UniProtKB/TrEMBL annotation:
A GO biological process held by the record: coenzyme A biosynthetic process
Top-level taxon of the source organism: Bacteria
MF GO annotations: FMN binding; phosphopantothenoylcysteine decarboxylase activity
Gene Ontology annotations for the cellular component aspect, listed alphabetically: phosphopantothenoylcysteine decarboxylase complex
Name by which UniProt lists this protein: Flavoprotein
InterPro entries according to UniProt: Flavin_trans-like, Flavoprotein
Domain Flavoprotein: 22-142
Annotated coiled-coil segments of the chain: none
Amino acid sequence: MSTHTLGLIGSATDGLENIRTALVEPAIERGWQVAVTLTPTAGTWLEDTGELARIEAATGLPCRVAPRMPREASPHPPIDCFLVCPASANTVAKLALGLADNQALTTVCEAIGVQSVPIVVFPLVNAAHVRHPAWNAHLAALREAGVHLLTGDEYWPLHEPRSAPAGKDLPWDKILDAVESASG
Ligand SMILES: Cc1cc2nc3c(=O)[nH]c(=O)nc-3n(C[C@H](O)[C@H](O)[C@H](O)COP(=O)(O)O)c2cc1C
Protein backbone atom coordinates (compact mmCIF):
# COMPACT_ATOMS: atom_id res chain seq x y z
CA MET A 1 0.00 0.00 0.00
CA SER A 2 1.53 3.34 -1.06
CA THR A 3 1.86 6.08 1.51
CA HIS A 4 2.43 8.79 -1.08
CA THR A 5 0.25 11.79 -0.27
CA LEU A 6 -0.96 14.25 -2.88
CA GLY A 7 -1.76 17.72 -1.57
CA LEU A 8 -4.57 18.88 -3.83
CA ILE A 9 -5.26 22.61 -3.74
CA GLY A 10 -8.49 23.76 -5.36
CA SER A 11 -9.50 27.32 -6.21
CA ALA A 12 -12.74 28.91 -7.43
CA THR A 13 -12.96 28.18 -11.14
CA ASP A 14 -15.13 26.27 -13.55
CA GLY A 15 -14.67 22.54 -13.10
CA LEU A 16 -14.07 22.77 -9.35
CA GLU A 17 -17.37 20.97 -8.78
CA ASN A 18 -15.88 17.85 -10.43
CA ILE A 19 -12.65 17.46 -8.48
CA ARG A 20 -13.90 14.57 -6.34
CA THR A 21 -14.99 12.33 -9.18
CA ALA A 22 -12.44 13.49 -11.76
CA LEU A 23 -9.32 13.98 -9.64
CA VAL A 24 -9.59 12.84 -6.01
CA GLU A 25 -11.09 9.39 -6.57
CA PRO A 26 -8.92 8.60 -9.65
CA ALA A 27 -5.80 9.68 -7.71
CA ILE A 28 -6.79 7.35 -4.86
CA GLU A 29 -7.25 4.57 -7.42
CA ARG A 30 -3.72 5.30 -8.67
CA GLY A 31 -2.41 4.70 -5.12
CA TRP A 32 -2.27 8.21 -3.69
CA GLN A 33 -3.60 9.34 -0.35
CA VAL A 34 -5.19 12.73 -1.10
CA ALA A 35 -5.32 15.72 1.27
CA VAL A 36 -7.49 18.55 -0.07
CA THR A 37 -7.12 22.24 0.72
CA LEU A 38 -9.46 24.85 -0.81
CA THR A 39 -9.32 28.61 -1.14
CA PRO A 40 -12.05 30.34 0.88
CA THR A 41 -14.24 30.92 -2.18
CA ALA A 42 -13.73 27.36 -3.42
CA GLY A 43 -14.60 26.14 0.08
CA THR A 44 -17.89 28.02 0.12
CA TRP A 45 -18.80 26.69 -3.33
CA LEU A 46 -18.17 23.05 -2.40
CA GLU A 47 -19.78 23.43 1.02
CA ASP A 48 -22.87 24.80 -0.70
CA THR A 49 -23.27 21.72 -2.91
CA GLY A 50 -22.34 19.14 -0.28
CA GLU A 51 -19.21 18.17 -2.21
CA LEU A 52 -16.90 19.22 0.62
CA ALA A 53 -18.33 16.54 2.90
CA ARG A 54 -18.20 13.98 0.08
CA ILE A 55 -14.51 14.79 -0.53
CA GLU A 56 -13.82 14.32 3.18
CA ALA A 57 -15.60 10.95 3.09
CA ALA A 58 -13.60 9.89 0.01
CA THR A 59 -10.21 10.98 1.38
CA GLY A 60 -10.74 10.22 5.08
CA LEU A 61 -9.15 13.60 5.86
CA PRO A 62 -10.63 17.00 6.65
CA CYS A 63 -10.79 19.45 3.76
CA ARG A 64 -8.75 22.44 4.85
CA VAL A 65 -10.25 25.85 4.13
CA ALA A 66 -9.63 28.00 7.22
CA PRO A 67 -6.22 28.19 8.90
CA ARG A 68 -5.78 26.03 12.01
CA MET A 69 -5.83 27.57 15.47
CA PRO A 70 -2.30 28.05 16.84
CA ARG A 71 -2.99 25.40 19.52
CA GLU A 72 -4.07 22.84 16.90
CA ALA A 73 -1.85 20.40 15.00
CA SER A 74 -2.02 20.33 11.22
CA PRO A 75 -4.85 18.00 10.20
CA HIS A 76 -2.97 16.82 7.09
CA PRO A 77 -0.06 14.38 6.83
CA PRO A 78 3.25 15.39 5.19
CA ILE A 79 2.78 15.97 1.44
CA ASP A 80 4.83 14.26 -1.29
CA CYS A 81 3.54 16.32 -4.23
CA PHE A 82 1.33 19.39 -4.51
CA LEU A 83 -1.21 19.80 -7.31
CA VAL A 84 -2.89 23.19 -7.61
CA CYS A 85 -5.88 22.35 -9.77
CA PRO A 86 -7.91 24.10 -10.90
CA ALA A 87 -5.77 27.22 -10.32
CA SER A 88 -7.58 30.51 -10.88
CA ALA A 89 -5.77 33.49 -12.39
CA ASN A 90 -6.04 35.06 -8.95
CA THR A 91 -4.40 32.13 -7.18
CA VAL A 92 -1.62 31.87 -9.79
CA ALA A 93 -0.84 35.58 -9.44
CA LYS A 94 -0.76 35.40 -5.65
CA LEU A 95 1.46 32.30 -5.69
CA ALA A 96 3.91 34.03 -8.02
CA LEU A 97 4.07 37.04 -5.71
CA GLY A 98 4.31 34.95 -2.53
CA LEU A 99 1.03 36.25 -1.12
CA ALA A 100 -0.23 33.83 1.52
CA ASP A 101 -3.52 35.32 2.67
CA ASN A 102 -5.41 32.02 2.89
CA GLN A 103 -4.60 28.44 3.94
CA ALA A 104 -4.24 27.15 0.37
CA LEU A 105 -1.73 29.86 -0.57
CA THR A 106 0.10 29.57 2.75
CA THR A 107 0.66 25.86 2.12
CA VAL A 108 1.89 26.20 -1.47
CA CYS A 109 3.94 29.37 -0.95
CA GLU A 110 5.82 27.59 1.81
CA ALA A 111 6.34 24.53 -0.40
CA ILE A 112 7.75 26.75 -3.17
CA GLY A 113 10.28 28.09 -0.70
CA VAL A 114 11.17 24.75 0.86
CA GLN A 115 11.75 23.14 -2.56
CA SER A 116 11.52 19.58 -1.25
CA VAL A 117 8.52 18.23 -3.16
CA PRO A 118 7.25 18.75 -6.71
CA ILE A 119 4.56 21.37 -7.27
CA VAL A 120 2.27 21.05 -10.30
CA VAL A 121 -0.07 23.90 -11.25
CA PHE A 122 -2.89 23.73 -13.82
CA PRO A 123 -4.11 27.30 -14.47
CA LEU A 124 -7.71 27.33 -15.68
CA VAL A 125 -7.70 30.76 -17.27
CA ASN A 126 -9.08 32.55 -20.30
CA ALA A 127 -7.53 34.74 -22.99
CA ALA A 128 -8.29 37.90 -21.02
CA HIS A 129 -6.45 36.63 -17.95
CA VAL A 130 -3.41 35.89 -20.11
CA ARG A 131 -3.43 39.37 -21.67
CA HIS A 132 -3.08 40.96 -18.25
CA PRO A 133 0.32 42.70 -18.33
CA ALA A 134 1.57 40.85 -15.25
CA TRP A 135 0.61 37.32 -16.38
CA ASN A 136 3.77 36.30 -18.25
CA ALA A 137 5.98 37.53 -15.43
CA HIS A 138 3.94 35.48 -12.95
CA LEU A 139 4.43 32.31 -14.99
CA ALA A 140 8.13 33.05 -15.42
CA ALA A 141 8.57 33.51 -11.66
CA LEU A 142 6.86 30.19 -10.94
CA ARG A 143 8.88 28.36 -13.63
CA GLU A 144 12.07 29.85 -12.24
CA ALA A 145 11.08 28.41 -8.84
CA GLY A 146 10.78 24.95 -10.39
CA VAL A 147 6.99 24.80 -10.46
CA HIS A 148 5.61 22.47 -13.16
CA LEU A 149 3.10 24.58 -15.08
CA LEU A 150 0.54 22.74 -17.18
CA THR A 151 -0.22 25.37 -19.82
CA GLY A 152 -0.73 25.48 -23.57
CA ASP A 153 -3.19 23.98 -26.02
CA GLU A 154 -2.42 20.40 -25.02
CA TYR A 155 -3.85 21.17 -21.57
CA TRP A 156 -6.33 24.02 -22.04
CA PRO A 157 -6.72 26.10 -25.23
CA LEU A 158 -7.48 29.72 -24.41
CA HIS A 159 -10.93 31.14 -25.08
CA GLU A 160 -12.32 34.59 -24.60
CA PRO A 161 -14.32 35.02 -21.35
CA ARG A 162 -17.58 33.05 -21.37
CA SER A 163 -16.72 31.52 -24.78
CA ALA A 164 -15.36 28.07 -23.86
CA PRO A 165 -17.29 25.36 -25.72
CA ALA A 166 -20.16 24.13 -23.55
CA GLY A 167 -19.49 20.82 -21.85
CA LYS A 168 -15.74 20.92 -22.51
CA ASP A 169 -14.09 18.89 -19.79
CA LEU A 170 -10.71 19.50 -18.20
CA PRO A 171 -7.85 17.10 -19.08
CA TRP A 172 -8.02 15.35 -15.72
CA ASP A 173 -6.09 12.21 -16.71
CA LYS A 174 -3.27 14.21 -18.32
CA ILE A 175 -3.06 16.30 -15.16
CA LEU A 176 -2.66 13.18 -13.00
CA ASP A 177 -0.10 11.81 -15.49
CA ALA A 178 1.86 15.07 -15.06
CA VAL A 179 1.73 14.66 -11.27
CA GLU A 180 3.17 11.16 -11.58
CA SER A 181 5.86 12.26 -13.98
CA ALA A 182 6.82 15.22 -11.74
CA SER A 183 6.96 12.85 -8.75
CA GLY A 184 9.44 10.62 -10.58
C1 LIG B 1 -19.01 30.71 -11.85
C2 LIG B 1 -17.62 31.29 -11.82
C3 LIG B 1 -16.64 30.69 -12.59
C4 LIG B 1 -15.34 31.21 -12.56
N1 LIG B 1 -14.39 30.61 -13.33
C5 LIG B 1 -13.12 31.08 -13.30
C6 LIG B 1 -12.11 30.43 -14.06
O1 LIG B 1 -12.36 29.44 -14.78
N2 LIG B 1 -10.85 30.91 -13.99
C7 LIG B 1 -10.52 31.99 -13.19
O2 LIG B 1 -9.35 32.37 -13.15
N3 LIG B 1 -11.47 32.63 -12.46
C8 LIG B 1 -12.75 32.21 -12.49
N4 LIG B 1 -13.73 32.83 -11.73
C9 LIG B 1 -13.33 33.99 -10.91
C10 LIG B 1 -12.74 33.56 -9.56
O3 LIG B 1 -13.67 32.77 -8.85
C11 LIG B 1 -12.35 34.81 -8.72
O4 LIG B 1 -11.27 35.50 -9.34
C12 LIG B 1 -11.98 34.43 -7.28
O5 LIG B 1 -11.60 35.63 -6.59
C13 LIG B 1 -10.86 33.44 -7.22
O6 LIG B 1 -10.56 33.22 -5.86
P1 LIG B 1 -9.51 32.09 -5.41
O7 LIG B 1 -8.33 32.17 -6.34
O8 LIG B 1 -9.15 32.53 -4.02
O9 LIG B 1 -10.22 30.79 -5.42
C14 LIG B 1 -15.02 32.34 -11.76
C15 LIG B 1 -16.03 32.92 -10.99
C16 LIG B 1 -17.31 32.41 -11.03
C17 LIG B 1 -18.38 33.06 -10.19
